[in-house]
Amino acid sequence: MAAMAYTSYSKRVSIDTIVSNHFDGELVAKLMQIFGGGTIRGSSSKGGVSALRQALKALQNGRDIGITPDGPRGPRHSVADGAAALARIKRVPIITMHCEPSSSWKMKSWDHFCIPKPFSTLDFYYSDPFYVHELSLDEAKALIQKELLKHNRELS
After folding, report:
1. What does the alpha-carbon distance between residue 18 and residue 103 come to, in Å, rounded to a whole number?
2. What are the sequence ranges of the domains in the chain?
3. What does the alpha-carbon distance between residue 85 and residue 15 come to, in Å, rounded to a whole number?
4. pTM, full prediction
5. Higher confidence at residue 73 or residue 64?
6. Backbone phi, then psi, for 97, in 5-degree steps?
7. In whole angstroms, how far apart are CA 148 and each of 47, 54, 70, 119, 126?
8. Model confidence over 60-70: pLDDT tens digits?
9. Residue 47: is it exposed, middle or buried by C-beta count within 10 angstroms (0-12/13-18/19+)?
10. Could you give the maximum distance between any two Cα atoms of the chain, in Å?
11. What is the Cα–Cα distance from 85 to 37, expressed in whole angstroms?
12. Pairing of strands 15-19, 64-66
């Protein structure tokens, strides 16, 4: 639902989300299709080069790209190369988004995946657009990480 929240925030409706080729990615792909978004299948560990090519083409066609930046294996709160590489190559802005449920169940997985409890509220936080094309890849990833964690109550 993060991509749908972004379309509401940005008033842009042309968004493709990069999702894994695994079963959980198939669920996301079907949801995106229902809500009118597109998907690019692949991840940093499987199909990454193809996903990068498709994302570059989508950006060239004026579409926005939604990426979960820590990749499929983490570690938690890390930023893989994908988002930074895309933004550097195409010189497009990045907007980070963070969602905080008022109440949730946390899974015992590497990313502590959370499921909002019924009747909880979701607070969405968006960064101002920023560019990374003049930064090194490591500097770009560090800036993305900083912006992503800015409103994380868990780290406060």
Report:
1. 27
2. 2-155
3. 18
4. 0.83
5. 64
6. -135, 140
7. 25, 24, 11, 25, 9
8. 999 999 888 87
9. middle
10. 44
11. 22
12. parallel
